[in-house]
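Onboarding guide, step 5: your first structure request.
Type a short instruction followed by the sequence, for example:

Predict the 3D structure of this protein.
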Amino acid sequence: MRKSLTLSLLHVLTGLLIANYRDTSFAFGILVLTVAAGHIVLSQNKNNQAMLWAAYLVGLEILLRMTGGFLVYEAGKYSVVFLLLLGLIVEQVNKPKPWPIVLYGILLLPSFAVVNFPDFLHFRKDVSFNLSGPLTLIVSTYYFYSRPLLFNQIVESLRFMVYPLISVIIYLTLVTPELSDIEYGTQSNFQAAAGFGPNQISIIMGLGILLVGLCLYYGYTLTGTLVTDVVIMSLFLIRGLATFSRGGMIGGIISLGLLILLSVLFAKRIISWPKALLYILGGLTIVLYSWNYVNEISDNRLMYRYQGLNYRTGQAKDITSGRLIILSHELTLFTDNIWLGVGPGMVREIAVKGVHFANTHSEFSRTLAEHGLFGGAALIIMIFFPVMYILKKPKEILPISFAILFLVFFTMFHSAMRLAMPGFLYGLVFFYPGKAFGSDLQKSEAIA
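The system replies with structure tokens like these:
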């Protein structure tokens, strides 16, 4: 507990430092990557150091991205890939290979034959933007596939993801206006996101909600105490709702609800009905308080936003914020180029030229548009491979795995794979519960 609280406080200080001295962001990113690589090599990854440091980069990615801490935009995903690969290399452990996900990667290659970029710079940026996500997914799956892990190891990786999110909260609090001073409409709010993408801030806040809620539900704290966990979870909700970007909030809350629902439906459930009800009521209280606070300071415009209404006229707007139009265009690209698609990165290039509506928001329609029927086959593998794998796990593991997988697919549907988070978490569901996993969960119940 003391260690978790100390690390949480250190990340409060990190947020303060970067908010006041933004130029330190790049140096901090380099320091983290260097220390992580050294730790993995020196330890030979004997205690899954690669998993912990990759999880940390998943949480840190958004802070470094919005403060200029990366040399290139997709560096967060590349860092996660590098650390996981490094762990695989130094540990030299023979274990089963996830051949279906290897085939998934191979199926994305034929469409390179039809790419048509004006120059190499466009090729590098657009291909990196769209394929760095699938690369993260492939490497993460390769790392976690059939890797024996205990529940407390899973919890530790979740802690490493949450710590940098605390820094994000501190940074946002210091560099944005008071939430009550922000002018709210019924569009995503860049002011509440410190001028960065509200969608990405919302996603990472939704991730924080699931991680804190999951651990509290099973009797663990991420920040050291129940009180600080509840405070952090409330801040994730308030800051996420204030962005007026709905996807991340909906995904995080539904994923947590799915975890609780599935855990009480299985015969070997770890949490009893009375305790589950207590957690549900506590969670609903936090959600309702956060909702009412943001809705009140925004003069009910938060409610209008989630209802898809124009707050001036009360008339219905496009509740998908144009995503259905983008989806329709990408499906048209698929049907017009059904065999190989338009090529990796070309959906973005077409959007820049004004031929298309906007950049992709769905990994599913993007894959079809850019990779054609080969992409369709890749999607079938990507969707059904983890589901079939999870169903073979012990029943008490299913709620955790399906809650994480739901968040992954939901994020991919409304925001593609802009962040390293969905690719890393996709791979994580392929862990194999170690022999003491069940007793580990029982201990967590006793702690709760």
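Each response can be followed by summary notes, for example: The chain has a mean pLDDT of 87.
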